[in-house]
Amino acid sequence: MNNEKILRKKIEFYLITPIFVSMFLILMCGALYFVDRRCAVIATVAVVVVILVELLVYVVTKKAVMPTLISFSFEQGQIQKELLKELAIPYALLDTDGKILWGNTLFVEQVGGGSKKRIRKNISAFFPQIGTEVFKAKDTVNMELELEGQHYVAELKRITFHEVFQDEDSIVDPKGEAIIAFYLHDVTELKKYKQENYDQKLVAGLIYIDNYDEVMENTEEVRHSLVEALVDRRINMYLASIDAIGKKTDNDKYLFVCQQKYLPQLKDTKFAILNEVKSINVGNEIPITLSIGIGSESDNFAQAYEYARVAIGLALGRGGDQAVIKYGDKISYFGGQSAGTEKSTRVKARVKAQAFKEILESKETVLIMGHKRPDADAFGAAVGVYRFVKTLGKNAHIVLNEVTSATRPLVTGFQGNSLYGDDMIINSEYAISKVSPTTLVVVVDVNKPSMTECEELLDLTNSVVVFDHHRQTNEIIENATLSYIEPFASSACEMVAEMLQYIDEKVKIRQQEADAMYAGIMIDTDNFLTKTGVRTFEAASYLRRNGADTVRVRKMFRSDMYETKQLAEGIMNAEIYMDSFALSRVKPDGSDAPTVIAAKVANDLLNVDGIRASFVVTEKDGTAYVSARSVDDINVQVIMEKLGGGGHANVAGAQLVGTADEIAIIQIKELLETMYKEGDL
To answer: d(Cα 415, Cα 387) in Å, to the nearest integer?
Structure first.
């Protein structure tokens, strides 16, 4: 009715407008009588004729035009209603609870199976993904839905409604002051084509033989060609199974290209080629291991290749024998169960030492820091770098905020010592004040920025050097000027000890410094029982020649009676899980370094017959600290990574913030069970 009144007024205004114009003409004729009477008479006659014609048209046509226009408007409304009913997309009206009020023909056919009775339900009966919160949203909501194999993009738009909805096709009257318009856009074909386009994208892959030189050195020369041929055949057969194009670019390197649709197949089989190549045995004493890096989900192939290079770098940095897939910013790891093969050559150490020396030439001050709550290895490595820097005549400071029982025996030998000065060991605040354009930050025994002693230093300086022996994770120190990460090394102290031997200048290591570095190696290897290689003993021998005393170091780290009782209690409380794993908890009462006690308990539990790995948890300040150790083929680093931690194949750990120790034990059990079912253990 309101529309009809508005339309009537508009038409009346349109018809009466000429009358107002005629009144203006009459006034004009009156004015002409004062100028020229003859012209005024002629004009008056003309105006009278026009007015008579307008009145005749208004009176005669008004009754005919008005009903016609109004009738036309209502006919248009009916046409629009029919068009909406036969709209080419499913369309419905819902009340604010999600109940279907009305649906057009296509909606009834596709959703209700052609029956109006069937759609007398709530929309969630057909699309369970639609929650009640959607109906309360004031803005338009878009979401993806699926029904009987068809994919839709749904649009739900809230419309304010003040009048009672009346329609002969309505199922029920709406309640409330609003209704929801519900549109379904069928995107099944579009989704299919998008998936095809995604599947056909090319991904770049790199395959490296981790230990090519070591395998060849330990294999008879006459069998070299046979080993290479078997490796080539296994790799080429594997690439053929995913319709990939492969090219051998070097004796130990391969490049391949395949379609993205084969990635799920590779992931489901967990890159079976890793184990297939290790099974090759034609006289080679060392199993052959591969590293695979794949780059995908990039805008172009060049970027995919760059992703593959980053991925292969991560695989090698984590010890090899694994596959890494980089999807943009996301990274997935597969394999990595073996501890890797130690590199006998020290060429890399010499190159890194020379590069570090060149960086130091342009610097005045060096700030050295390890990880939070540092252990003997972190502090010992920092002392080694300190001596390296001082030998080159540069200022050096070790950043240390907290001295615990894990480092106190070492730190006391430097604090108050006139040979080193009061500014050898400084806290984070003082370190920040020392930052200048010529400052270099050296990070030892850690490569995760969030775990460093003072993360802010990494942002304040442009030059950062990293020396670490832990396997890399997704979180790394970005844009490091020099990064030397050697997962095969037993400790950071071993790495620094090797580098000290490759400086042209004569390095004079003092007794306290040699003791600190020797202690770092000893603690990280559990008295040379785990993760030791030829280079480990060579580094220890170098330190012994420079004054390290094994008896003196051993006395430094003897346990007091309280700690000994805690160790005994930790072992007594241990439980065997799945016949292969030892789990225990250590109470940190009275200890400022509970993680050290937990690590010792974990090491001792490995001496139990049949135990393949041990996990010991201790809780301090609302954080659960997990120490993981293994002596068999179990890679505890992979297990700890799933808890947000990391480490080595045989020595690893994790920190679970806001988690109680008993909850951490439950999480470890669930993780071990899941990994066992998935074949990762």
So the answer is: 16
Q: Is the pLDDT of residue 319 over 50?
A: yes
Q: Tokens in use for 386?
A: 């300190």
- Which residues make beta-bridge pairs with 440? 366
* pLDDT higher than threshold 90 for residue 255: yes
Q: Residue 36: pLDDT above 60?
A: yes
Residue 220's φ and ψ, nearest 5 degrees, are -55, 140
Is 653 strand, coil or helix?
strand
Instruction: Measure the CA–CA gap between 366 and 38, rounded to whole angstroms.
Output: 111
- Cα 240 to Cα 224: distance, rounded to the nearest angstrom: 24
CA R_g for the chain: 40
Q: What is the rounded distance in angstroms from the CA atom of residue 292 to the CA atom of residue 479?
A: 23
Sign of the alpha-carbon torsion through 151, 153, 158, 163: negative
What does the pLDDT look like over 402-460, one tens digit per residue? 888 778 888 888 887 888 888 888 888 888 988 888 899 999 988 888 888 888 888 88
- Contact by Cβ (8 Å): 172, 98: no
Question: 571-588 burial, b if ≥16 CB within 10 A, otherwise e?
Answer: beebeebeeebbbbbbbb
| Integer Cα distance of 123 and 171 in angstroms | 14
Find residue 258's DSSP bridge partners: 203
What local confidence, expressed as pLDDT, does residue 632 receive? 67
CA angle 542, 545, 546 (to 5 degrees): 90
The four Cα atoms 603, 606, 612, 614 give a dihedral, to 10 degrees, of -50
Average pLDDT over the chain reads 81
Q: Which two tokens stand for residue 84?
A: 């909406």
pLDDT, one tens digit per residue, over 121-175 is: 788 778 877 877 777 777 788 888 887 778 888 888 887 755 444 444 444 444 4
Tell me which residue has tokens 């050096």. 396
Q: How many residues does the chain have?
A: 681
Of 601, 579, 607, 603, the C-alpha closest to 588 is 601
**Residue burial 38-68, b: 16+ Cβ < 10 Å; e: rest:** eebeebbeebeeebeebeeeeeeeeeeeeee
Position 73: which residue type? S
Q: Which of 103-117, 332-346, 550-564 shows the lowest mean pLDDT across its residues?
A: 332-346
Q: Is 417 helix (H, G, I), strand (E, B) or coil?
A: coil
Residue 140: both structure tokens together: 């338009």
Q: Which of 183-187, 234-238, 646-650 has the highest mean pLDDT?
A: 234-238
Identify whether the C-beta of residue 103 lies closer than 8 Å to the C-beta of residue 118: no
- d(C-alpha 186, C-alpha 88), whole Å: 10
Q: What is the mean pLDDT of residues 171-192?
A: 72
User: 177, 162 in Cβ contact below 8 A?
Assistant: yes
∠ Cα 497 369 629 (to 5°): 70
Strand order in the sheet with 613-620: 575-577, 581-586, 613-620, 623-630, 651-657, 646-647
Query: Taking 90 as the threshold, does the pLDDT of residue 381 lie above it?
Result: yes
Most confident of 270-284, 365-379, 469-483, 546-560: 365-379
DSSP code at position 261:
G
Using left for φ > 0, alpha for ψ between -120 and 50, and beta otherwise, residue 578 falls in left
Q: pTM, whole model, 2 decimals?
A: 0.59
Q: Where are the beta strands (DSSP E) in 66-201?
A: 91-94, 100-103, 141-147, 150-160, 178-186
Place of tokens 């005994």: 568
Axis-axis angle for helices 492-500, 376-391 (nearest 10) = 20
